[in-house]
Amino acid sequence: MTKKVLTKTNQMSRDEWLHLRRKGIGGSDAAAACGLSRYKSMFSLYQEKMGKVVPEPAGEAAYWGTVMEPVLRLEFGRRTGLTVEPMPYLFYASDHPFMIADIDGIVREKDGSVSLVEIKTANAYAAPDWVGGLPIEYYMQVQHYLYVCDLTHAYVVVLIGGNNFQTIELDRDPDTVRSLIKLESDFWINHVEKGTAPAVDGMESTSKVLEQLYPTAEKISMVLPESADELVSYYLSLQSQEKSLKTEKAAVENQLKELLKDNQCALTPAGYAVSWKNVTTNRLDTMALRKDHPNLVAQYTKAASSRRFSIKFTHTNQKGDK
Questions:
Q1: Residue 84: pLDDT band by 50, 70, 90 thresholds?
Q2: If we measure between CA atoms, which residue out of 61, 57, 24 comes closest to residue 144?
Q3: pLDDT tens-digit readout, 143-189
Q4: What's the first-to-final CA gap in the chain, in angstroms?
Q5: Which residues neighbour 271 within 8 Å (Cβ) at sequence distance 6 or greater?
Q6: How do residues 257-271 score in pLDDT, each as one tens digit?
């Protein structure tokens, strides 16, 4: 297998880059395409590749990650003596052209071999994800890149919490790569190329995509297929369990509060810290504001549209049976 260059990326706009990414599965897509991402579902990724939804815009974390990349590249070089060469190209695998890679850079080892370099930043809350290795999303991303770029070794440079610099080395894993190729091929060939969406799931990303796909109800009503009755029954069963668990949870919480009495914090014999702290919150008195300044409230009030999901029994048989 040999890698090939699809295009240069250093003078490309974000819109152009996003358009190109729709033509294949990139490293940051790998975990989602394999059904392993904790943040993006296969259904969400499919809708992005089909151009039905627009990926969420890069936020502050992504912005600062880009800002810090040159700094971390230099620090990696200072600590290792290796010089990172940026790779402003979009590569693809010759035998699986839908597998694409936009990598941070490479280094040339003393023995003449070439290694991949991937640079990351993570906030302090994500620190546990990096204990013992890479988070699954980044592990799949690096294995994807190693395959597409026909490399065997990688350095992942990460700054955690703004002050914890780490370099993690890993090699291409043949078993992981075989599974990755199989799962990515299935996603691309059997879903994207055939235009067949993966099944929806309970991930937050799926919910957000459905809200983007169907932001408003355009029709009044319809008759659902018979399979919907089974889904409704299961949904109501889960809803009942949820209410029961919520009540049970509240009962346990109240028992602990009764044990705490007027103490803010306490420790259990096993070492758990339990707190019931005093909290002061400043809240806007909307009733008084509406009464005293109705024109001001109207000036700063705008309508927000959304869709509310509910289920109720109507006693009506849609088949027309009596």
A1: very high
A2: 24
A3: 999 999 999 999 999 999 999 999 999 999 999 999 999 999 999 99
A4: 66
A5: none
A6: 999 999 999 999 999
Total Cβ atoms within 10 A of residue 160: 18
Lookup: tokens for 61 = 């974390």
CB 140 within 8 A of CB 36: yes
Please give the Cα distance from 163 to 122 (Å, whole number).
10
User: What residues are paired with 93 via a beta bridge?
Assistant: 3
The domains of the chain are located at 3-212, 225-258
Contact in structure between 90 and 128 (CB atoms under 8 Å): no
Confidence (pLDDT) at 317: 64
Return d(Cα 295, Cα 87) in angstroms, integer. Answer: 58
pTM, rounded to two decimals: 0.82
Residue reference for tokens 């297998």: 1
Confidence band for 322, pLDDT divided at 50, 70 and 90: very low
Distances (CA, A) of 310 to 28, 205, 226, 232, 235: 35, 20, 18, 10, 11
* Helix (H) or strand (E) segment spanning residue 118: strand 114-122
**Rounded distance between C-alpha atoms, residue 170 and residue 133, angstroms:** 9
The Cβ of residue 114 has, within 10 Å, a number of other Cβ atoms equal to 14
Tell me, which fold does domain 3-212 have in CATH? Lambda Exonuclease; Chain A (3.90.320)
Segment 203-218 shows an average pLDDT of 92
d(CA 19, CA 21): 5
Please give the pLDDT value at position 199: 96
Sequence-ordered alpha helix ranges (H) in the chain? 14-21, 30-33, 42-49, 60-80, 136-148, 174-187, 204-213, 227-260, 286-292, 294-299
